[in-house]
Design brief:
alpha/beta; N-terminal domain of TfIIb; Rossmann fold; 7-stranded mixed beta sheet; 6-stranded mixed beta sheet; 22 helices; globular; binds iron/sulfur cluster; nitrate assimilation; molybdopterin cofactor binding; iron; iron-sulfur; metal-binding
């Protein structure tokens, strides 16, 4: 028997065709009909059947380490939350969610905390991955709308890959790019990345810029477009606003292009070659990811890129647009339901009293939150300060993944109530839990996810839940019922939640919002089970979904025009010092996922890289007396990291690269998060994870 589902790893959202055996997933292959991957799977996706099973799973509810019944565990969570709210108010409670949760899980969690508990202290690990891109889109378009689709990668004539090691982190999209380049020899690929990554194998031009100079590079491009008289005046006049202010801000940054090139750490000829290519090509896709977002000026980085597309009118038609790629399988679904502290629901936010009232009436919510809550880093700082007294972590591992993880661990240690719902039993975070709730894993879940091109796909249950595991939406709803909100959380099946979410997307909408899937408001269980992948918005005008947005030049700002955002030069916040002289870049490996809770369960995925490491260039290795393969220590006042030295020509002098995956279970001394300072983008709240500062030395100097 075969069942179609969706890969739980990256934001590409590949369709998976799972072959079921006797109580097991015998084999997986790519779903040939799924428009994201057309039958392809990368090494992570194709090993999904190897990481299942009950080994390492959390199988029963635990309170204070003791096994209890579900009823007792849920009663205890509800009781403790109610006591905390009564004593300290709604803002003393927080939820921390995950881009791995399904949209239905996210919807219910968001509804409970914002609508019924009455605080917006709900954030998600997606804050660490794409919140700067969200803020950039909202500033420019008035909405969090990805304008492009994957087909655009094949229809373009110039792919500008910025801060994205696509070959490792979105491998199926990289395969599509490779195929597109084979088919269209005129397609040019530019990679903007301080490191020479595997993605550069496809590049016609590699701009190995200094880390943290992305916005200056693109502001320079905007200035070039203007000074060379390459602006699409008709588009700018009819469909945009704020052009002059943005040009002034861009032009004031540097006295000359040579000065800019030096600032970015590249030669002038390379810089100009890129600018000429961009300006001379009508179909340009700027494809950007964590290298752009994980910066203390991540939102400005996004807008600097978007500004160049608006100035040339390169948006809204096949093969053109600024295309932010999400890292996680359901980062987009979380955004749809408002699963970030600065969102409300269905692409509405707290800036509009009318929207707050509308959502409150729709939910019949007695106590709807009125203002933004705390974002990830600030949220755990508030836990440490004792301002938040109850935190519920769902399906994520902040004790490994957030900056200054030792501080996060201390905060969790001190917090009076820590609830963790997770499918795995031994994450770093679960060690701090007073109450552990076993959640279903990927092969057991049933619901929807949305990928980076706005495509909603079904994740379908392949196997029965392990042990006593329950679905996240069920766990949250049962707690909500025990808190006195039985009517609002009376869900029996995820299709009911999806239908409610769809109805809210169109509730008093009048076509004023980008996110509208209200055609699904009355979806039945049968239709939900059979739902085929579809890109939102799904409206009467576009009942089969919408591939790309803004073809008509209409945006979701009050004026209907896209906004240029003036961007000024910004240096990273974690600048090197004499004591911490190296810039530390962090990122994913080809074969691992996040903190390895799943991918760490099969030896096959360790054959590519099997232990924590530090990449550095030959000159730095010589300077520090480090030889290939020896253990090195990275130090920072917050903590240490130990890994094996990999000496490479791919790394710029003065810069190091460390993988993000290893943690306590695999290597207690290789948590890169201990070295990152809790520095964030002031607009998006996204941590500056690509620009730490550290010292390096051989662990056992000869
Ligand atoms: Fe899964 Fe991403 Fe690989 Fe596709 S590219 S199979 S979604 S990890």
């Amino acid at each position: 028997m075969h069942k179609l589902t969706t890969c739980p790893y990256c934001g590409v959202g590949c369709g998976v065709d799972a072959e079921l055996g006797e109580g097991v997933v015998a084999k997986v292959q790519g779903d040939k009909e799924h428009p994201s991957n057309y039958g392809r799977l990368c090494v992570k996706g194709s090993s999904l059947h190897e990481v299942l099973g009950t080994n390492g799973r959390l199988l029963s509810p635990l309170v204070d380490g003791q096994r209890v019944s579900w009823a007792d565990a849920l009663d205890r969570v509800a009781e403790e939350l109610l006591c905390t709210i009564k004593e300290h108010g709604p803002d003393s409670v927080a939820f921390y969610l995950s881009g791995q949760l399904l949209t239905e899980d996210y919807y219910v969690a968001n509804k409970l905390i914002k609508g019924f508990i009455g605080t917006a202290n709900v954030d998600t690990n997606s804050r660490l991955c794409m919140s700067s891109a969200v803020a950039g889109y909202k500033r420019a378009f008035g909405s969090d709308t990805v304008p492009c689709c994957y087909d655009d990668l094949e229809q373009t004539d110039l792919l500008v890959l910025v801060g994205s090691n696509t070959a490792w982190n979105h491998p199926i999209l990289f395969q599509r790019m490779q195929a597109a380049k084979r088919k269209n020899p005129d397609l040019k690929v530019v990679v903007v990345d301080p490191r020479r990554t595997a993605t550069c194998d496809l590049a016609d031009l590699h701009l190995a810029i200094k880390p943290g100079t992305d916005s200056e590079l693109f502001s320079g491009l905007l200035s070039y477009i203007s000074s060379e008289d390459l602006v699409n005046r008709a588009y700018v006049t009819q469909f945009t606003e704020g052009f002059n202010e943005a040009i002034s801000a861009a032009s004031e940054q540097f006295n000359s292009r040579a000065e800019l090139a030096e600032y970015c750490g590249i030669d002038l000829a390379t810089l100009e070659q890129f600018y000429q290519l961009f300006s001379a090509t009508d179909k340009v896709i700027s494809f950007y990811s964590q290298g752009v977002n994980q910066s203390s000026s991540g939102t400005d980085n996004s807008n600097a890129i978007i500004n160049c597309h608006l100035a040339t009118g390169r948006i809204g038609y096949p093969g053109a647009g600024p295309f932010s790629i999400t890292g996680q399988p359901n980062a987009m679904g979380g955004r749809e339901v408002g699963g970030l502290a600065n969102q409300l629901a269905a692409h509405m936010d707290f800036s509009s009293a009318e929207a707050i009232d509308r959502v409150g009436r729709f939910w019949d919510a007695p106590n709807i939150a009125q203002a933004n809550g705390l974002t990830a880093v600030n949220l755990f700082q508030a836990v440490e300060k004792g301002e938040i007294k109850a935190v519920w972590v769902m399906g994520t591992n902040p004790a490994v993944s957030l900056p200054n993880t030792n501080q996060v661990s201390r905060a969790l240690e001190e917090c009076p109530l820590v609830v963790v719902s997770d499918c795995m039993a031994s994450t770093e975070t679960i060690r701090y839990a007073d109450i552990c709730l076993p959640a279903t894993g990927w092969s057991e879940k049933n619901g929807t996810v949305t990928n980076a091109e706005r495509r909603i796909s079904r994740q379908r249950g392949l196997l029965p839940p392990s042990g006593e595991a329950k679905h996240d939406w069920w766990i949250i709803s049962e707690v909500a019922k025990r808190m006195g909100y039985a009517e609002a959380f009376d869900y029996q099946h995820p299709y009911q939640i999806f239908a409610e979410h769809a109805e809210l997307s169109g509730f008093e909408n009048d076509g004023k919002r980008d996110f509208d899937i209200s055609l699904f408001s009355d979806i039945t269980e049968t239709a939900y089970d059979a739902l085929k992948p579809v890109q939102w918005p799904v409206t009467n005008d576009a009942p089969y979904g919408t591939a790309r947005m803004f073809a008509d030049g209409r945006f979701y700002t009050p004026s209907g025009k896209a906004r240029f955002i003036p961007v000024t030069a910004n240096k990273p916040k974690q600048l090197p010092t004499p004591e911490l002289p190296y810039v530390m870049n962090t990122g994913r490996l080809r074969d691992q996922w996040h903190t390895m809770a799943m991918t760490g369960r099969t030896s096959r995925l360790f054959s590519h890289r099997d232990e924590p490491f530090v990449e550095l260039c030959q000159a730095d290795a010589q300077k520090e007396g480090i030889v290939e393969g020896e253990l090195v220590k990275l130090s920072h006042p917050q903590g240490e990291y130990i890994g094996r030295a990999r000496i490479t020509d791919d790394q710029r002098p003065g810069e190091l690269f460390v993988p993000m995956h290893w943690n306590g279970e695999f290597s207690a001394k290789a948590r890169m998060g201990v070295l990152l300072e809790p520095v964030t983008d002031p607009i998006s709240g996204q941590p500056e994870s690509k620009h730490g500062r550290v010292a390096i030395e051989a662990l056992n100097p000869k």
